[in-house]
Each structure stands twice: as C-alpha cells, then as structure tokens.
UniProtKB/TrEMBL annotation:
It is a single-pass type I membrane protein. It is found in: Cell membrane. PANTHER family: CADHERIN DOMAIN-CONTAINING PROTEIN, CADHERIN-23. Residues 82-176, 200-289, 312-410, 434-514, 538-625, 653-738, 764-848, 879-1017, 1041-1130 form the Cadherin domain. GO terms for molecular function: beta-catenin binding; cadherin binding; calcium ion binding. InterPro entries: Cadherin, Cadherin-like_dom, Cadherin-like_sf, Cadherin_CS. This is Cadherin domain-containing protein. PROSITE patterns: CADHERIN_1. It comes from Chironomus riparius. Keywords: Calcium, Cell adhesion, Cell membrane, Glycoprotein, Membrane, Repeat, Signal, Transmembrane, Transmembrane helix. Its main location: membrane. GO terms for cellular component: adherens junction; catenin complex. The chain crosses the membrane at residues 1240-1264.
Length: 1405
C-alpha cells in the first residue's frame, strides 16, 4: 500500500494466499495518521475477496465404487451412486458436475443420471451368458468394470474418472434335470447290503457352484432298503437292509423310488427335480418252513377211533416249497393226573394217533384212558423237500389234554350238622361251615338251602364256601330251634347233587332295658341347706322279670361332686354336703339304673340306663364386695400426666361380689365420699361391677398427689360394703416407656453347667423415645417367687447380665428371670419387662456333625437366579439328648469359604442353597464352598482364610484327633502365608479336603455347573496351510484341522466339513484329479489325500472348511495345500525329541514366519540319523517348506537358506530356544553340468591350475604366520591339568588357550581365533576325542609341572573337588576333562542359481 495515496497493490503472487479454495477473503486493517504520521490516527477494516476461476477438477469421494448385483434383477442390492466434489465456488458453473459412463464392455446395459450420479440397469443381466467369456474359473461372482467421468461446467471444463466395479452374483435359476424320467432294474432278494444296483444322473445349467452342484436324495419309496450316493447318484442296498419280500408286511416284490436331484441353492432358492426308479425283487428258495401257531388240543377220553382231532399247518414264504409232516418221538412226552411222566414202554401213547404226511391231518386210532395219561406232548417236524440250499426243516410240539367225564356225586364230610347260637347275635356272625367233596376232575361245587321260608330268612349260606351266617336277628321267644337242609351241586354235565340236615339251637339272653318313670329333670334348692335334706324321689322300671327286672339306683359322684346321695333301692335323692352357691351355682348330676345288678354286673349280664338331672342353687346375700382393681395388697399411686385428656379415663375401678351377678346381691354401686381430689375428679359407673375415674377439668400445671375416698356396696338386703382410698399422682409429661430391642421376649439362653462366676450370659438393650431424664434407661432384675434372680446380676447401665453364683444343673436346669428397663422420668419412671429363660445344659462335647466330608450339587448355567434350589444334607448331634429339651436346638448353616463373589445364597435355617447371580460355566466350571453347621444362629462364624488354619494340621498328620471342646473351629491359630511352608500353603489354598476331615462341622460342597450349548466352535486359526509331496501316497494325512468349543460333552462334539469347491491355482497336470481332492474326516478334522500325486504336478489347492457343533453353531476357515517336490524342503536339525517339538511347533512356525515374511508349513518329523547310520533319539529332523505370501509359490531351498543367513541375528533367540543345530536342504543338490567333453577337460585343467596356485599361497601364509603366532603355539602346549591347589583352578582355566588340538573339532586351527559368535551353533554332543592312551597329539610336548602328582588323577576326591568347584560349575567333563561346544554352518549357495551342499565348521569358546 502506498503510504501517501493509499493505493493497494499485489505485492507477490508466490505461495497459496491467492488460492481461493484456501483463502477466500483477506481481512486487513488500514490506519490513517495526520501530521506526517506523527499526529492523530484512525483505522478502518478492509476485506479483499478473491474471485473464483475454474482451476479445480472434480474429485470423487471414493477411489473406486463397488456394488453387488443379483442375476436377473433390475436393481442393485444397494443404490449405486457416484459422487464428486468441486472445490470451486458452490452454485456456479465451475462447481456444477455432470456424470457420464465413458468406458466398459457392458456399458450399453447401464445408464447414469448426469445430475445425481445414480447408475441404473437397462435390463436384467444373465450370469450364464456373462460367464461364457468372463468367468472361466466358474466362480459364483462375475465382475463388470465401468469407467465413469465427472465433468464440471467451467470454461474450459475439467473432468476426472473413477472405476466402478459391479459384482454380478449368480442366482439359482436352473433346476437339475435327469437324463431320463424313469429307470427300471431287477435284482436278487439275497444281495448283500452295500451292493450298487444302478446309477441315475442329472445336470444343472447354472453357471457356478454351488448352484450347479447336484446332490441326490431318495424322497419316497425306499422304506429304509436303499440309499443313494449324494454326489454319484448310485443307488445301493442300505446297511442292515434285507430285500427278502417275506420279511416285509405286506409282501413286497418291487420298490418304486422317487429320486430327487437338488442343486446347491440355499434355503428357498434351492431347486430340484424328480425321477422314478422301479426296482423288482427276484425270489430265491432259501427259507425254512414255519409252523403256524400251535393250539392245545382237548380230547374226550371216550373219543371214537378214526376221529380227526387236529390238522398241522406250516407256511413257507418261498414260491415253490413242497412240505412233508412227521412225528418225532424223541420230542414227545406224556403225564398222568398227578403230573408224573409216563414212559412209552408203560403206555404206547404214540400209537394212539396217526399223521398224514401230505396234509398234516391227525386222527385217533386208539381209545385214550384219562386215568393213565391226562396230558400229552407230541413232537412234530415239517420239511421243505424242494429246497436247493440244503435241508430246511421246522420242529415244534403239539399239546393234547384228555378231558374227564362227570361220573361221581358230591359227598359231605358229616352225615348231619348241629350247632347253637345266641339270640340277638350280630348279623353276619358265623354259625358253622358245611363242606363237601367231589372225586371227579372238576371239583367245583355250589351249595343251596332248602326248608321253610321263615327259617331260611334268618340264615345265609355262602354258595361257594359253605359258610352259614346270621342273616336277621333271631329272637329266642319266637324260634327255639332253626332247622333246614343244605344241597351240594357239582358243575358237571349232567349235574350231580347230595343233601345234609342242619340243626341250630337258639339260646335265651337278657335283652330288655330298664327305664325311668320320673318325668321331671330340673330341681332347685337354696344354698346353705342342712345335710340330709330330701330333694326328690326317682322312679324306674324293667320289662324283664326276676333278677332281670330288679332295679338298682346309682349316683355318679363325679357329676355330683359329693354334694348329693341316692338310696339304691328307693331312689330318694338327698343333700350329702354343704352347698355354697359362690363355689358352684348349679349341678348336672347323672343317675343310673341297673337290672340284675347283684349277679350280672360283674359278669356283664346286666342292662342299665341313665338320666341327667339339673339342680340349680338359689343365692343368699352372704358375700361382701371385693375390690379387684386397683390392687389393695400393694397400694400405689395412679400416675397421669399434666396433659391428661379429660375425655380419657384416669383409672378404671373394678369390684366383684361372689353372690349371684343376676340378682341385686351380686351387683355393686360406686360412690365418691370425699378426698383431696374430690373437686378435680369424678366417678362414672359403666356397669354393675365397673366404674371409671375422669378428670373434671384440665390438669395443666396441677401435678401433685391427690386422693379419693370411694364407697363400694352391693344392692342386697341388707347391703354389704367396703371402702377404697384411691391415690392419683399428676406428673410431668413422660409418655414413652423403654422398649427392648435385643434379645426378643421369651428368648431362651443356653449356658453350660460349668460356666464360671462372672461369665457374661447375654446383654439386654432397650431404647426410650423420650429425651432427657425421661430417656435415661437403667436395668434391674425383678424379684420372683422362686428366687431365680438371685443367681444372676445385671449392670444397671450396660444391661450386661453375668453369672452370680455357681450353677448346679442337678438341682435346677431352668431359670426364668424378668428384666425391667426403666427410665428416669419425673415424677414416675416408665418401664418395660423382658422375660428370659436361661437353660443350663450339659457341656456340649460335640457340635452338629456332617456324615459326609463332601457333596456335589448341580446348577445349570444362565438360569435365572432363584429358580434352582438345592437342599443340603442334615447334620447329626452326638451329644446325649436331654429329657427336658422340648425341641432340638436349631442348626444353622453358613458359607465360610468360596463365596467371595456372593454368587450363592444359603438359607441358614432351611439349609437351601440357591444362586444370587447368573452362572457361566465357560468362566468357571465348578465352585468349591465350605459350609459350617453351628447351633449359634445369632453370630455368623468368621470366614475361613489362611490365617485360620491350624499349624499342627499343616506340619503333621492330615487327620485331627477327636476333641471334646465345644467349638473346634475357634481353636485355630492366626498364621499368615509367610509362616507356612510354600508347598503346604499352596495345598491349603488349592483344596479343603484335609480341613473337612479335621472338622466334622464342615462339609465341602462342590457346585458343578451344567453346560448348555451357548458357544460356537472356533478354529484355532483362520488359515491352515500345509504341503504335500508329489511322492506322497494316496490317503496320506496332510494336516489336522484344530478347533475348540468352550462347551463340554455333547455340546462340544465337533464335526468338520468342506464347503464349496476346491480351487486349484498355478495348476499344472491337475486336470485329471476329480473332486473332492481331499477328504476331511468328520470327527477328527484330519485332511487326507484323495488322489495319487505325480511328479509333473504343480500348483496349490485352496478350499473352505466349516466346523459345527450339534446345534449348528459353526465357524469357517480357509485351507491352502501346496504341491512340492522333495528338493523344495528344508531340514532343520534340533536337539529336542519329537514329542517335545510337536507341542511347541506352532510357536516355532509363527516366529520363523514373522522373520522370513513367508508362509511356513511343517511337512514331517523324523528321528535324527548320524552320518554313520546310527540313530540319535535326542535330536529331531524337522522338514519345512516356505511359501511366498504374494504369489503363493514355493520358495526354493537356496532362497530359504539365503533368508536364514540374511536374518541370522533375528533368528538367534529362536534357534537358541529350540536348540537348532543345523539347517540344510532335505536332499543334497548336485551341480548340473551341461558342458561337452572338450569343454569339461578345459575347465578341469583350469581348476587344477588355480588350486595349485592357491595351495602355494596358503603354504606361504602358514610359514609367515608361524613366526607371528609362535607364542600362541607355545601356550597351546602348556599342561592341561590344573595345579593341586584348588584355589588356582580359576587361573589354570584362564590360562587355557582355545582351539588347540586337545579342544578342537573338525576343521579348526589354533591360530584362527576369530570365531563366529552365535550360540545356536553349539552342539552339546561334540566332545573332544582322546586316544586310547589318554593323551592327544600335543601331549608329547607337555611341559610337566612340578606340582603335579599323577596319583591325584586317580583320587576320586580330587576329581570331585574339581567337578564341584564354583569355577567349573556348569561344565561337564569326559574323563574328568572339559566338554566343549561345536557348531555347523549352513549350506551356502553357488552362483548362477546352481548350488552344492558345503559344510562349514567353526569352533567357539
């Protein structure tokens, strides 16, 4: 800006200050000053706006747009909309954007909205036509690429492009089609299960898997007889199935199968088609005949000869069977009536029947005698004589029963029967039993009565048993004898009968009751009548005569209370004792009358009756009123507060009169006769015995003591009276009495009989809601009549009750005391009482004990808390039961260990265990709780921890000796983890079985969480890789898929499957391989080879696997399997046994893969074999191959070795950890020569010349270096044995020079001291090799030390001193010398890609 004229110009266009997209406006402040810049000043803001030009190209929001399109759909799954932004001024042509599709093979099928950028379809896309040229791999998704251009409206316009990829997904729009609609075949019925019968085939025209994969199913008609290969369509006989038509019901000679071909569509998209297969069954005569069900044949003993009695029938399911029937005497048997077997020699029963061999008819040819044989069992045989497969027979037995004829009459046991019966015998009483027998086979008899109807109505005869009973009451006065006839009838045809006479005498008895003639029942007399006064005369009679009609009167003394008497002969009722109405106002007496009392009362032959008489005692005024309240024995002042409501009762007055309350003699009247409070109080009578005292007016500020003189008299004539002086104390307001909060009322306290004086029994606590002195509470024991309070004392301030005297349980077991809590209210304290029962029990030698040390309960995971409940077992108490104990002491359960998270709740009284929080078995499978049983329910026991473990249980035996103390649990020592041996401490924390064994009041409850299937399986990794050699055999196991499921049991049983098709990449020679290329074992996850590899095959396979549990929860993973040659594997030699290496191989693979940036696959484990052919089981040869992650190609061995060399420092830790000794090619590589003979000769000559020159140079260097290293060579010849002084061992070891012949390995030299320092090359098995004399090649030049004594070499103590000294700690010796380490170098590669195996060796100290 020009300071004089204010013209603002652009100073510089450099930088980005004039880029409108970065700085749209510049805000300046311009200042003007007068007086040439020295005077007053003023400022003004200046805003400079940068105008836009079209210098920004449209920019898409995404680098690439992708969407998914389902075949035959007219819309994308999600709206395909491209969007670009232009940084130029919004709303101008420079920022207005237009869209267009500018490139793409299928561009005509799409349109784009030039404004919104929404891409739409012109029509549906047919995936099958699309895949003819763009989906040669037959995948389920084909790709369409478009280029969309966004152009702005500026001048000139600017534009940018973005690729759009549309993934067209194949839809299942073709159903499988069978080659034929129906198939027919015929097979033999005796084909073995698994035999193929025929094959059906269908094809699917869909463009990709799984839509075009065809699976076969039998829809209908197989009846479990046939199965079909889901992939091949081959119909075979099912395992365990039989095609025998005779075994099917109904008989089936052909099967009409409906076969369905289903494609790989999912859910509703799956399509299918059906075909019909007709399979006919051809019969084979291969079955034995079978008898029809045999029935028992019944034959009369007099059946005529020639009668057909039975026809044998057998069936044979073969079509051309010819049957013949025979008797088999070996299987026959006969028995008589008593079950005795009859031999055929005694009675030839086989000759009694004849059998027709053709039709099986059996007829009688001899008369049968039932008395000789009653049951007959005959063996029969049927044979199919048309059998072509050997003899086909069936055998069975036919049972005959010879029936008897009725030819004997029934016979009674006696010629007649005679009995007697008492008259009035109970109905149903037994009189006698008649019994008859029948000699015939059928011995069933029935009995009937015959005689006059009036006689037969009195008795009942049981038709089956012959028992005669009383049916109606028999009166001796009507029937003296009851006579009738009994008929016995058998069940034969025709029936046979017999008769017998029965005579019954009826005996008389006393059967008439005495009865009262007197009709009145109510009597009344005055009290105080003289003894002997007659009250009334009672009259009675009896219908019997003689002694049975003589009446005797008796009075019940219990009902008369001894106040009355009656004459036994005349029935005169008199007063026998003084009668006082106030003691009893009425009597309900019972008078009895007896007949034949003198002779029949003792023998039970008398009859009696009784009657109640009510005697009312009339009252006389002989009692003075008695004041019941307030008490006159302990007069006290009636206390009320100065705020007493005049409507409320000051005190009730209650009086009573022992005279009749219904008469004036027993009713009283209350009259106020004076007193200091007569003008302040008045009396209001409420009924004849009660009155209330009320205040006449308010008593505010009139507190003090007042008295009332009250006259109480009855209403009798003359009246009787008594006086009452009533004291009323008006006090300051104290309206809250103390109340007890602990313990509860009538609480029983148990105390041992050996308790000491001063021992605390309990502590009572009371509260008072008043304040000040009115709320100051003190305690005291109330006196009782038995003096129980004298045995205890209470602190009046704390409420602590202690023992005052020594207890003697034999004299007194129960003490009932009453504790009073009173406040210090003025003028009268308020108080409340608490009744306590103190029970003195014998010393409790045993606490409640569990019968078991541990139990287990089950809870189900994820069940709502409180639903499941478990009742814990009860305890037993081995103490002697006290006879005075009403109820057993309540035993409470407490959780003292294992419930830190408050997961469980135990009801201490009901012993029911439940869950507070939802359990998860996958977080914890089980819980261990320790439950303590105790009779002390008020004080929960302390939780169990390490500080409450007995020290003697840890350091000595696990079994505790029996104790007699009351509570063993309280005798534990306080110990911490630092006080215990670590091993024992861990043992205690890990389990509680030993503690449970020590303390029977404890039980260990193991809570087992039952599993539900709530977790899906998971593969251990998402990608499994492996390799298979082209020399592998068919069925070789390549790898084992590993997955885990947190569930257990059947919920964790996993099944492995392959899903989708196996893809082959970089494939050569794999066209002949049929799917599936690999078989996955369902249960183990083992992946096995399903083809024969050939050397010319190359490439790798990849496919998807799925693991499922029983409920369908699943997980997927990808499997890559590479084909490799034997020379593409690398061998690692490790000092580990194979089983150790297998456990940690995944760690080795992961670490090695991270360093080399390649996929590492393990091929094999082998026990190491040395060069001499011996086996070294301490080493393992590990075979690996590496795969390039970028192109999935096998990395050659030379490249692998180069990667190892390149990353040797990074691999150092890994190789040390796994003791890697060597790395080399699995097969030694041979240098391949492609030269001619002449060229070979030239090269050999040149190599010989070069080697000769090199030899000369080496010899020259050795001679020159000999002088320089003379001192080192001399040091190498120093005595290798140490001085005798063990204190100089360290110095001797330090003087030793490495790399001498004595301590060298192959290829080493003492002058080359630059060792390759890498500990993974160390080999613990490289020992120094000594000669038979014990000296090496330098021992001839040993300079003998004067201090050395050869005898010490044989001294075991000397050798032991050296081997155990600190300076030699960790070194192992051979012949008591030092063991040294060796290493082997890698295989190095040669130039031009051709390598040979070369072994480099170096030694390291």
């Amino acid at each position: 800006m020009d300071p004089n004229n204010g013209v603002i110009t652009i100073k510089s266009t450099e930088g980005q200050f004039f880029d409108r997209e970065l700085y749209e406006k510049h805000y300046l402040t311009v200042e003007a000053r007068d007086n040439i810049g020295e005077g007053n000043r003023n400022t003004v803001p200046l805003i400079i706006t940068i105008q836009d030009v079209n210098d920004e190209i449209p920019t898409f929001l995404q680098r690439k747009y992708e969407t998914r399109l389902l075949e035959n759909r007219r819309t994308f799954e999600t709206v395909l909309q491209v969007e670009a932004r232009d940084a130029d001024v919004n709303g101008t042509r420079n920022s207005e954007i237009f869209y267009d599709i500018i490139d793409g093979e299928f561009r005509p099928n799409f349109t784009i909205d030039s404004k919104s950028g929404i891409v739409k379809l012109r029509g549906p896309i047919d995936f099958e036509k699309l895949t003819l040229s763009h989906n040669k791999k037959k995948t389920s998704v084909a790709q369409i690429s478009l280029i969309i251009q966004a152009t702005d409206g500026g001048n000139p316009p600017l534009s940018s492009n973005v690729p759009v990829i549309i993934y067209v997904e194949d839809q299942n729009d073709f159903a499988p089609r069978f080659e034929r609609f129906s198939y027919e075949t015929a097979i033999m019925e005796n084909l073995e299960p698994g035999t193929p019968t025929m094959t059906v085939k269908a094809v699917d025209l869909d463009g990709s898997a799984p839509n075009n994969l065809v699976y076969y199913r039998i829809i209908d008609g197989a009846l479990d007889k046939f199965v079909i290969g889901s992939d091949t369509g081959t119909i075979s006989i099912a395992n365990g199935a039989s095609l025998d038509p005779d075994l099917s019901d109904p008989k089936r000679l052909n099967y009409l199968l409906t076969i369905a071909a289903l494609d790989g569509g999912i859910g509703d998209q799956q399509l299918s088609s059906n075909c019909i297969v007709n399979i006919s069954i051809i019969d084979v005569n291969n079955k034995s005949p079978v008898f029809n069900e045999m029935q028992t044949v019944y034959i009369k003993e007099n059946t005529a000869v020639g009668t057909y009695v039975f026809k044998l029938m057998a069936t044979d399911s073969d079509n051309d069977a010819t049957l013949r029937y025979f008797f088999d005497s070996e299987m026959s048997e006969a028995k008589n009536e008593n079950g005795v077997i009859i031999k055929q020699q005694e009675y030839d029963y086989m000759q009694a029947f004849d059998l027709n061999a053709n039709d099986g008819l059996i007829r009688v040819v001899k008369i049968l005698d039932r008395e000789k044989i009653e049951t007959l069992k005959i063996g029969v045989v049927v044979e199919d004589i048309a059998s072509v497969n050997g003899k086909q027979v069936a055998m069975t037995t036919l049972n005959f029963i010879i029936e008897d004829e009725n030819d004997n009459n029934p016979k009674f046991q006696k010629p007649f029967y005679r009995r007697s019966v008492m008259e009035n015998s109970q109905i149903g009483s037994n009189i006698l039993n008649v019994v008859a027998t029948d000699a015939d086979k059928n011995k069933s008899l029935i009995y009937e009565l015959e005689g006059p109807e009036e006689i037969l109505n009195l008795v009942h005869l049981d038709a089956v048993s012959g028992e005669i009973l009383v049916q109606e009451k028999i009166d001796h006065e009507i029937f003296e004898w009851v006579n009738f006839t009994v008929r016995a009838i058998d069940s034969g045809v025709p029936q046979r009968t017999s008769l017998v006479d029965v005579f019954i005498q009826v005996i008389d008895e006393n059967d008439n009751q005495p009865y009262f003639i007197t009709e009145f029942q109510n009597l009344s007399i005055y009290e105080n009548q003289p003894i002997g006064t007659q009250i009334a005369v009672i009259e009675a009679d009896d219908a019997d005569s003689g002694d049975y009609g003589k009446i005797t009167f008796l009075l019940d003394r219990l009902s008369s209370h001894g106040k009355f008497s009656i004459d036994p002969d005349t029935g005169v009722l008199k007063i026998a004792d003084k009668i006082d109405r106030e003691q009893k106002s009425s009597y309900m007496i019972v008078i009895e009358i007896w007949d034949n009392y003198q002779f029949g009362a003792a023998s039970g032959e008398s009859r009696n009756a009784f009657k109640q008489f009510y005697i009312k005692i009339l009252d006389e005024n002989d009692q003075t009123p008695v004041i019941e309240f307030p008490s006159q024995k302990e007069p006290s002042c009636i206390s009320i507060t100065e705020f007493h409501d005049i409507k409320e009762i000051v005190t009730p007055i209650r009086a009573s009169d022992a005279d009749d309350p219904t008469s004036p003699n027993g009713q009283v009247r209350f009259d106020l006769r004076g007193g200091t409070g007569a003008d302040m109080f008045y009396i209001k009578q409420t009924d004849p015995w009660n009155a209330n005292v009320f205040a006449r007016h308010k008593l505010n500020k009139k507190y003090g003591n007042y008295s009332l003189n009250i006259d109480i008299r009855d209403l009798g004539n003359p009246p009787r009276s008594t006086d009452l002086k009533l004291d009323i104390c008006v006090q300051d307001f104290n309206d809250h009495a103390p109340f007890f909060v602990s313990p509860i009322n009538n609480y029983t306290i148990r105390i041992a009989e050996n308790a000491t004086v001063g021992q605390v029994i309990t502590q009572v606590v009371a509260k008072d809601e008043d304040v000040g002195l009115n709320a100051l509470i003190k305690y005291r024991l109330k006196h009782d009549l038995f003096g129980n309070y004298k045995s205890f004392m209470i602190d009046e301030h704390s409420g602590l009750i202690t023992l005052k005297v020594v207890l003697n349980r034999e004299k007194q077991k129960l003490y009932e005391i009453r504790v009073e809590a009173y406040d210090q209210g003025i003028p009268k304290e308020l108080s409340s009482d608490l009744d306590l029962i103190i029970y003195v029990h014998s010393v409790n030698n045993y606490e409640p004990s569990f019968l078991v040390q541990s139990i287990s309960v089950n809870f189900t995971e994820h069940v709502q808390p409180g639903i499941e409940k478990r009742k814990l077992p009860d305890t037993v108490d081995r103490d002697e039961v006290d006879d005075l104990d009403d109820d057993p002491t309540t035993v409470c359960y407490f959780i003292i260990y294992g419930n830190d998270d408050e997961l469980f709740y135990l009801d201490r009284a009901t012993h029911i265990l439940s869950v507070r929080k939802e359990l998860d078995r996958e977080k914890k499978q089980n819980y261990s709780l320790i439950i303590k049983a105790t009779e002390n329910c008020l004080e929960p026991p302390m939780p169990l921890n390490v500080s409450s473990i007995e020290i003697n249980r840890i350091t000595s035996s696990k079994l505790r000796k029996a104790k007699s103390e009351t509570n063993r649990f309280t005798e534990l020592l306080n110990l911490g983890p630092n006080d215990l041996d670590v091993e024992n401490y861990d043992e205690l924390m890990a389990g509680s079985d030993s503690l449970i064994a020590d303390d029977p009041t404890l039980v260990k409850v193991v809570v087992l969480i039952q599993d539900i299937n709530d977790n899906p399986p998971k593969f251990t990794k998402k990608v499994f890789t492996g390799g298979v050699s082209t020399s592998a055999d068919f069925g070789t196991e390549i790898m084992k898929l590993k997955a885990s499921d947190p569930d257990v049991g059947v919920n964790a049983k996993l099944s492995f499957f392959q899903v989708g098709k196996t893809l082959r990449t970089l494939a050569e020679g794999l066209d002949t391989i049929k799917d599936p290329s690999f078989i996955i074992e369902k249960d183990t996850g083992s992946v096995k080879l399903n083809f024969d590899p050939q050397k010319e095959m190359k490439g790798y396979f990849d496919f998807t696997v799925i693991v499922k549990d029983k409920d369908g929860f699943n997980d997927t993973a990808h499997v890559y399997i590479y084909l490799l040659r034997e020379d593409q594997r690398v061998k690692f030699v490790l000092r580990q046994q194979s089983f150790e290496l297998r456990e940690r191989i995944d760690q080795f693979r992961e670490h090695f893969s991270n360093i080399t940036k390649a996929i590492v696959n393990v091929d094999d484990f082998k026990v190491h074999e040395n060069k001499d052919g011996t086996v070294d089981r301490t080493k393992t040869d590990l075979y690996l191959h590496l795969v390039n992650k970028n192109d999935n190609s096998i990395i050659e061995v030379s490249e692998v070795l180069r990667l190892v060399d390149q990353n040797i420092e990074k691999l150092d830790v890994l190789f040390k950890e796994f003791n890697v000794l060597d790395t080399q090619a699995s097969e030694a590589l041979v240098l391949q020569a492609e030269f001619g003979n002449a060229q070979m000769i030239i090269w050999l000559v040149m190599i010989n010349l070069a080697m000769g020159a090199l030899l000369i140079i080496v010899i020259t260097l050795c001679l020159s270096q000999r002088t320089n290293y003379r001192r080192e060579l001399k040091a190498a010849r120093v005595n290798s044995y140490v001085p005798t002084d063990t204190g100089k061992i360290a110095a001797a070891a330090a003087a030793r020079v490495p790399n001498t012949n004595k301590h060298s390995t192959e290829g080493s030299n003492p002058i080359w001291l630059k060792a390759y320092e890498n500990e993974w090359f160390k080999n613990d098995d490289s020992y120094s090799q000594t000669s038979s004399t014990g000296h090496d090649s330098l021992d001839e030049n040993v300079l003998v030390n004067n201090d050395y004594d050869e005898s010490k070499l044989a001294d075991e103590n000397f050798i032991k001193t050296i081997s155990t000294s600190k300076e030699f700690n960790g070194l192992h010796t051979q012949n008591n010398l030092i063991k040294h380490l060796n290493m082997y170098q890698h295989i190095e590669k040669l130039t031009n890609g051709t390598i040979i195996a070369k072994k480099l060796e170096t030694t390291e100290l």
